[in-house]
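Figure-free illustration: sequence to structure, shown twice.
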Amino acid sequence: MSNILVPTWIYKDCNAENYMSRKYKFHNKSGVYFISFATVYWIDVFIRQEYFSVLEHSIAYCRKEKGMEVFAYCFMPSHVHLIFRSSIMTLRFIKGL
């Protein structure tokens, strides 16, 4: 796993206004990517087992049915980090998690 790719929006602009751009760009569909996403207002949603289970089952479904390879993950109370690869890398795929 020597070539971890980071979407271009992460380093584009580091000031608070532009940090989380909506212009996701995955240039290498066979690359390994790091993504991070948070709940609205950083609310601790995933401390409740029912919501954590939805996240857990969604990742498991993508691994089994969509061919997603997960190399590392971290589920936090209000956000998620993933290092993964998927041949069907699209914004729709990511938002479908």
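We now fold a second protein in the same way, so the two outputs can be compared directly.
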Amino acid sequence: MPLSNALTAFRLPRGFSYDALHDALKEHNYIIYAGQGHLGAEVFRIATMGELSLAALRDFLAMLEEVLGSRPLGATAATL
């Protein structure tokens, strides 16, 4: 099985907070990481380090899609 050593950053969708997205994914045993410095409120990071199967990555992506589509996490009145 191939090994990966990547950390990839993604822009948070408009109206979503990192903390809410992190907590929702953690409820399903997935951990994401905040952006650093001035990007902390704009991006989240996903580590794909170690031995990961394609099935594990697909499961994570399906859960991410479900979480992002389920409710406006961290939405403010200005973004709704």
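Summary for the second example: The domain at 3-70 is CATH 3.90.1150.10 (Aspartate Aminotransferase, domain 1).
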